[in-house]
Amino acid sequence: MALEHQPPPVPTTTEHARPAPHTPVLRDDFNAFYAQEMSAVTVFLMHQGATAYEAADAAHEAIAKLLPDLWRTLDHPRTWLRVSAQRCYWRQNRTRAAPTDPVPDRPGGTCPLDTVVISEFQQTVLDALRRLPPTMRTVMAWDIDGFTYTEIAEALSMTPAAVRQNISRARKRLITLLSL
To answer: Tens of pLDDT along 12-30?
Structure first.
């Protein structure tokens, strides 16, 4: 059973509504899981400061670790995928040159970069997020992706209070950076 999903938009700091609840993970259809999560993980990494190419590379590297059967056995595959992709992104060489070739499509012709559409304002928000300290940027990326403070704390080995404090400080800084 294949699901078609529109890519999640890059939320702005002026939106007050929480993202829609997560769609349940389909344990028998990796293609549906891939389609559901690849664009979301790519945008998640872009919120942490990755370029579209860096984000796509790290997301693909992380999802490859789920094959062939790890993704079916994990209790929280969405969380695992983001933690793994985040680590892949952090390990990337920061000095590599920007690629000039397009990101290759996976079989079936779907590329996560084709579904990530960034408006001018969203690009401004991404630029502001990149100016935050790493911890604030990381917790904001998780928050924007719809995870609760408790889920973020567990994924990042922090306390919920530390997550709440970092998000609060990041929001204040973003309001200043975006002149809101």
So the answer is: 433 333 444 455 555 567 7
